[in-house]
Amino acid sequence: MTTSKPLEGAAAAPDPGGAAAANPDGSAVAPGPDGSVASPGPDGSAAAPGPHVPEPRAESTDVGRLAATVERLRGEIAAAQAAADGRALIELAKGVLIERLRCGPTVAAQQLASLAEEAGLSPLELAAEIVNQSSQDQLTELASEFASRANDDPPPEQPEPSIGVRLRTAESGALAAGDTQAAASSLLAHALAPLGAVAVAVWSAGADASLALAGHAGFSEGEADRWRYVPPGVSTLARRALMERQHVHITDMSAEGLPSIGRGRHPRGGRVALPVGTGGRVNGVLEICWPDPLEPQPPQILRQLDALAELCAHTLESRPDVTAPPSVETWVPRPDLSELVELAEGLYDPALVLVPYVGADGRLTDFRVHHVNSSFVDPAGRPRSAVNGALLLEAYPMAVGDSELYEKIERVYATGEPFRTRRMTLTALVGQVSLAAVADVSISRHGSCVLLIWRIEDEAARLAHLLQHAQRLGRIGGFEENVVTGEVTWNDQLFDLYGRPHDAHPVPLEALTSYAHVDDATTIRRFLRAVLHHRRSSSAAFRLERPDGVTRHMRVIAEPVLDADGRLLSVRGAYQDISSQHWTEVALAATRDQLAHTEQQAAESDRLTLQLQHAIMPPTQAPLSSPGLQIAVRYRPAESESMVGGDWYDAVTLPSKQIMLCVGDVAGHGIEAATSMVVLRNAMRGLAVTGAGPAQLLSWLNIVAHHLTAHVTATAVCGLYDPERHTLRWARAGHLPPVLLRGQQAAPLPATGGILLGALADADYEERELRLEPGDTLLMYTDGLVERRDESVQDSLARLLTSAGPPAAHLEQQLDRLLTHSASDTDDDTCLIGVRVT
């Protein structure tokens, strides 16, 4: 037997007034406009309300009459819903009899009426008893309570606080409460706390899908104040239940990204959010909070929560400040429109009064054009009657297009923040023809309505604005001088250029020399002679001496206006302030001179740097000779002279017959890097005669770089080769390790520890020893050989190892090949030393 839907409708509809009458057939009697219920008539229909029922108040405006009609229709809908709930319970009892007696619907109805008459009960009471015996869960108790309230009977006493008792207690407390806040406290204390819940929030849904906290319990006042209002578009747990129109069960809030009231207090608590409404409408959300993770609840608990949500729906509907969304898509006039209409009529610009148009789900779907003022001008030229009373998107479907007019109106309605813009494109679609106009638009919200004002720009006004802006931006002032009458006309911009008040007399052309610099008198006389005597257009540049002592550079342009006989009638022209251009040219000339001087200095500095670099390390050098050892060096300077840096090398035989091999790189470029390179190179030579090892030499050189130079940092690698033992002792300071070519393989020497030179006042360096065999080739180099901007140092070193081997027949060829095939792109100096054991 499939009777779940009627059963849910009957059990989840408690009467908000606490009692309801019923007709003999079991249907509920519709309440009157004031909420009272008339006694049923002999035929079971509801009798007319008594004289105590007040008549709907009369309003003098159409808006008032429409508002009263809407209130009356809402009352009728509520009465119809109550009657439907009673009929649903009777139909559910008939279904039980059909199943048990194996009979048809007609016989079941007859049996129900006969049994009710024999038992002395109303059909509604008997139906509740039949449901009680059939279901035996808390829905039974809810059905009994509904029947008891319908017959104005007190609820039966129960020895234990069962589910039905808790629901009845919560319902009584909620109905007796003066507001939703007290109702929420009753729900938590009597119905939800026994289920383990610690807090409850009742949200009221607005027509724009916003949420307002109508009542709460278990949350602090500070938390409630922060969540007093949730604007449209903010995704919360309650908003999700409102939009999906179904239960939302959250086992653990910490696993969800949805914000909600009180989440910080119970971060791992469970939540249940239920849409609240009656008769297919949703006017709010009931949100329940548990302190710990919440497992899925059994059907009995879920049905109990449904009953509480239904009770919240009736509580929200009884609030005087809450209006439930309409059950069908409709337009509800606002009673505050009369003043807004009067305001729109007092405007000289076209204005439209818009009221929101919401759908069955409470969402804003459009705006109704409630009023169009007498100054209205349609962009498409349509009369006022074609727009007045229509939906905005029906009258202007292109409002959601490029101009985004509808989105702006919707945002103003949602936030209350006014919007104004200039030169917005308004598009109207008339007869499938798109007609566009440019207008200045202003949108503002007044109460629950929106006022839309636009001023369509005509061609003359547009050209006048363009000319005005062009004159302002170009600092141009126009004039016209009648040579016959002597009348001179200036525009406002020209008075500002001259520094004269707007009520002063304009300056005629003949008196122009009196306001110009004395050195420009000849230029002005030549200009006046060309215009007034030769009657041809001319221009001149001069310095204007203003009354405030400011000198401005001006250009005047004029043309004569002649009659049919060639006589001069007037002169028209313009003045332009070219002071900025003049001083820009002066500054540009000075900048060019300074740039040329700077370029000359830079070229001289680069030339000196390059000479110094080449004096210390020439690009080509004869091979060094040593018994049993071939030594070759290469130095490749940077391609750009400005990039000459501090790369250096040295290969010298010491008094101890050992051979010192060094390569270094000073940070930076230019003359400072080159001079620092000379200091470090010479210092290394002087320190090497002490006979100290490579690590000690680098330690001393670090002291030189740190204390005896101006903030110089550098990298270096130093080696001492003993020809008798064929061993190389070496150390490095932040430099790339040497590369050893042995046979067909190329590999870097094991890295040794050591920080770059000059970074610290005192530094120690690690030293290693390597025995070289005949045929071995050792390469020492600076980063200019391998470094690339688009890859790491490890990748650059791997590419060097690939191109270094196998060794060439001659060491000189080996070094030339490395320089030729180098893929470096930093344009830096490159130093390269090659050593081969023979």
TrEMBL record:
<dbReference type="InterPro" id="IPR035965">
    <property type="entry name" value="PAS-like_dom_sf"/>
</dbReference>
<dbReference type="Pfam" id="PF03861">
    <property type="entry name" value="ANTAR"/>
</dbReference>
<dbReference type="InterPro" id="IPR036457">
    <property type="entry name" value="PPM-type-like_dom_sf"/>
</dbReference>
<dbReference type="InterPro" id="IPR036388">
    <property type="entry name" value="WH-like_DNA-bd_sf"/>
</dbReference>
<keyword id="KW-0805">Transcription regulation</keyword>
<dbReference type="InterPro" id="IPR013655">
    <property type="entry name" value="PAS_fold_3"/>
</dbReference>
<feature type="compositionally biased region" description="Low complexity">
    <location>
        <begin position="9"/>
        <end position="50"/>
    </location>
</feature>
<dbReference type="InterPro" id="IPR005561">
    <property type="entry name" value="ANTAR"/>
</dbReference>
<protein>
    <submittedName>
        <fullName>SpoIIE family protein phosphatase</fullName>
    </submittedName>
</protein>
<feature type="region of interest" description="Disordered">
    <location>
        <begin position="1"/>
        <end position="63"/>
    </location>
</feature>
<dbReference type="Pfam" id="PF08447">
    <property type="entry name" value="PAS_3"/>
</dbReference>
<dbReference type="Pfam" id="PF13185">
    <property type="entry name" value="GAF_2"/>
</dbReference>
<keyword id="KW-0804">Transcription</keyword>
<keyword id="KW-0378">Hydrolase</keyword>
<feature type="domain" description="ANTAR">
    <location>
        <begin position="70"/>
        <end position="131"/>
    </location>
</feature>
<dbReference type="InterPro" id="IPR000014">
    <property type="entry name" value="PAS"/>
</dbReference>
<dbReference type="Pfam" id="PF07228">
    <property type="entry name" value="SpoIIE"/>
</dbReference>
<dbReference type="InterPro" id="IPR000700">
    <property type="entry name" value="PAS-assoc_C"/>
</dbReference>
<feature type="domain" description="PAC">
    <location>
        <begin position="538"/>
        <end position="590"/>
    </location>
</feature>
<dbReference type="InterPro" id="IPR052016">
    <property type="entry name" value="Bact_Sigma-Reg"/>
</dbReference>
<dbReference type="InterPro" id="IPR001932">
    <property type="entry name" value="PPM-type_phosphatase-like_dom"/>
</dbReference>
<dbReference type="InterPro" id="IPR029016">
    <property type="entry name" value="GAF-like_dom_sf"/>
</dbReference>
<dbReference type="InterPro" id="IPR003018">
    <property type="entry name" value="GAF"/>
</dbReference>
